[in-house]
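RESIDUES AND SHAPES:
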Amino acid sequence: MVEMRVAGIALDAASRSPIVLLRDPSGRRQVPIWIDQAQAQNIMAGLKGQPPARPLSHDLMAELLVAGGLELQRVIIHTIEDSTFRAVLKLSGTDGESHELDARPSDAIALALRTGSSIWMLEEVVADASIPVDAEADAEDAADFRRFLDGISPAELVRHINQAQSELEDNNEEAPDDEPPSSAV
């Protein structure tokens, strides 16, 4: 899974429909999700982080979670079916029980912004739906990688891979059990 962040709201040039843009940690891929005007306003209100004079639906949902002893752990956008994204809310209760609720991605994103929860997307969904953010940088990285491969022997490549794997294993052994390694996202 890839932790995504909301990069902003854009307008589709052809249809003038709003799009929420989710960006991966590298900043090189964005996933556009077409939403309606009301959802765009709800997401923008969440991005601003300023409480409205009267609670909007998602502000009310966040308060209901608190009143009900639930916490939104994370949002997971897990599939695309017939050009429609599907998401779930991962909730935990004060009793330690976990709950999973089906949700529209736009509602899930708006709620995550209000609760400070993370937004995750399965790698397969990111790969299928993403658009490159900086194609020029991606092409440059690919060219650098090709030059690296052209200048290295197979034996040197194996040594590099083994050394990197050994360093990764050392880092994992040094990390405390309750925290992910520093290289983990």
Observations:
- The two ends are 9 Å apart (CA to CA).
